[in-house]
Automatic annotation (TrEMBL):
Nucleus in keyword set: no
Domain of life: Bacteria
UniProt organism field: Streptomyces nymphaeiformis
Keywords from the named record: ATP-binding, Nucleotide-binding, Transport
The UniProt record lists the keyword ATP-binding: yes
Domain ABC transporter residues, every copy: 2-227
Protein name: ABC-2 type transport system ATP-binding protein
Entries under PROSITE patterns matching the protein: ABC_TRANSPORTER_2
One Gene Ontology molecular-function label: ATP binding
């Protein structure tokens, strides 16, 4: 368990992290999202005592990081995969880390095997590709077999096989009851990996909620219908009080209804349907909807909503009521 209370970081007049309070719980993968410059890396650095908070606290299983005797056995982190000593082999990089945390040398071979780097264990890490460096960083995070793991952009530079591997690794580690905290800019990937989300914007907490609730609360959900008898279908829907939007290509979009209800209504009226499908926005659309006002760096002349069909933004933290 990781607990943040009122965590704040100022750089001069800039508030990078603004009174952040949340908990990262064991047994699930928690995604950490926010637009560029939102304060994710600063927050993660403070969690690992790599940066001092201006105010507020972070507790790792109830303790401050600097009070953990052998921190790698409590919390493993991949923050910057390039932080390894390039002149040392993959094996020696991990061995140094293991020795400083009284971790047996046999564990080095185990984690190299786990991340698929056994064949290049003796090679200097400066010759590693981005993906290999990322795997080495993940190996170092796993070295102490910690209960808590933090990954900043872990799929950066990984090929599809590597992305699949890290996704399953994170899920498996969470299923073992570990606390997994992961940031990523790849929304499609996050949607497949995370169960719970912490979203920040301009250093402030915007959401602390389950993935399903986040998408539901920040996007429009509707049923899409197509029929060769479109006009009659529209009349029937109107007569039954539904709000119908013409979506082009002969499709109608109906808000606030289930596919069951609309299918039955069509059948009662002898209407043929070619399509009846529940549509829900993606995590990416929901994310852009929520963070639109908190984006620090906009590209000029670009619609940041990317055509997301959604009502006006909802502000303030959302919560599962946990
Ligand atoms: N050492 C520093 N000195 C001054 N400002 C800083 C420093 N580190 C970060 N910042 C500022 O703090 C804010 C948060 O930065 P941070 O890197 O934590 O955001 P982020 O969410 O990780 O961004 P990204 O997604 O782009 O990596 C930014 O406005 C950044 O410019």
């Amino acid at each position: 368990m990781i607990e943040l209370e009122g965590l704040t970081k100022r750089y001069g007049t800039k508030i990078a992290v603004d009174h952040l309070s949340f908990q990262v719980r064991p047994g699930v993968v928690t995604g950490f999202l926010g637009p560029n410059g939102a304060g994710k890396s600063t927050t993660m650095r403070m969690m690992l005592d790599l940066d001092n908070p201006t105010s507020g606290t972070v507790r790792i299983d109830g303790k401050h990081y600097r009070d953990l005797a052998e921190p790698l056995k409590y919390i493993g982190a991949l923050l910057d995969a390039k932080a390894m000593h390039g002149g040392r082999s993959a094996y020696n990089n991990l061995l140094c880390l293991a020795q400083s945390n009284r971790i047996p040398a046999s564990r080095v071979g185990e984690v190299l095997d786990l991340v698929g780097l056994t064949a290049v264990a003796k090679k200097k890490s400066k010759g590693f590709s981005l993906g290999m460096g990322q795997r080495l960083g993940i190996a170092s995070a796993l070295l102490g077999d910690p209960e808590i793991l933090m990954f900043d952009e872990p799929v950066n530079g990984l090929d599809p096989e590597g992305i699949h591997w890290i996704r399953n690794l994170m899920k498996a580690l969470a299923a073992e009851g570990r606390t997994i905290f992961v940031s990523s800019h790849l929304m499609s990937e996050m949607a497949l990996t995370a169960d719970h989300l912490i979203v920040i914007g301009q250093g402030k907490l915007l959401a602390d909620t389950s993935m399903a609730d986040f998408i539901q609360q920040n996007s429009r959900s509707f049923v899409r219908m197509r029929s060769p008898q479109q006009e009659r279908l529209r009349d029937v829907l109107h007569a039954n009080g539904f709000v119908v939007v013409e979506a082009g290509h002969g499709a109608l979009e109906v808000d606030g209804a289930t596919t069951e209800k609309l299918g039955e209504l069509a059948a009662e009226n002898g209407l043929v349907l070619h399509e009846l499908s529940q549509q829900r926005a993606s995590l990416e659309e929901a994310f852009m909807q929520m963070t639109a006002a908190a984006v620090e760096y906009h590209a000029h002349g670009t619609d940041v909503h990317g055509g997301a069909a959604a009502p006006g933004p909802q502000w303030g933290p959302t919560s599962e009521g946990a």
